[in-house]
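Problem: given the chain below (355 residues), write out its structure.
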Amino acid sequence: MSKLKYIGLDVHQASISIAVREESGKLVMQSVIATRAGAILEFLDGLRGTLHLTFEEGTYSAWLYDLLVRRVDKVIVCNPRKNALLKAGNKSDRIDAKKLAELLRGGMLSAVYHGENSTRTLQELARSYRTVTVDTTRVMSRLKAIYRSQAIPYGGKKLYTRRHRGGWLKQLKQPGLLRRAERLYEELDLLQQLRRQAKQDLMLESQKHPVCERLRTIPYLGPIRAAVLAARVQTPHRFRSKRQFWAYCGLGLETRSSADYQQIEGELKRSRKKVLIRGLNVDHNHDLKNIFKGAAMSASIFAGPLQEFYQQRLAAGIKPEMAQLTLARKIAAVALTIWKKGESFDPSKLKAQAA
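Solution.
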């Protein structure tokens, strides 16, 4: 019978600290190797038994997962935000590797999904588009800050267009500010060109994935939102239910309760105290939350079947912000359902799908 071994990797740019524990929890090996594929595989070839391995999500996680997934029996890329034990007590690379191996042995790690190579190109192009978009927004904010610092009123998109740019620059009397604004406009022009190219690359790649076309049938899930949604989720079968999907998208409610049972007349009965709601879950994918939140905001304004759903919530006495949250959850649930079933959006089925 092969022995089960738990391996924790603390990965850095130059080196990897490794700790190996047996099923009993005994530490049987510690080592430090170079962060190279050959060194990692050579170390694993020297181990015998059933190998379970873990390391934290980070810069090297995708490369490491692809390298190791077929070399060991189980790989868990764990969420560093939920590894509170690593922050307690003394800290070093060797200690962190030992703790990771122990957490893996105890089944106390929260896994980060890796595994759909078919969408890897779409994922990278979506990241590229998002990065350039964020950089473009940052430069636009810096331009606004220059005019705001001089009490020059601004509004709309004319501040950024080449046609009106000369008029805005004439309002800056200080030579340093003028030169700075000119450099920012040059940077903005370059980023806008890159953004258009990144968008085109993303749209061309999304056409290779039939799910993007089905997701676009949902009102206000346009080509960009559908492509980013497909890239971020990769496969809908990661989520057993819509509530798991809501939590991943930042649309799940976090609740707190304590002393849930009371002893009444010698019997344990569930307490009737109200569960405290602490708002939406903080640990989530921000891109997906922006997608469904943006779609819900548009759907609540413009006529259509989703607006009817929103108006029904308002008529039931729900506050507008909560009605919009319910609408975002509805859109997310519909997207997950039609993705799993391979269908297109059907307004007649909207009422049957609970939010």
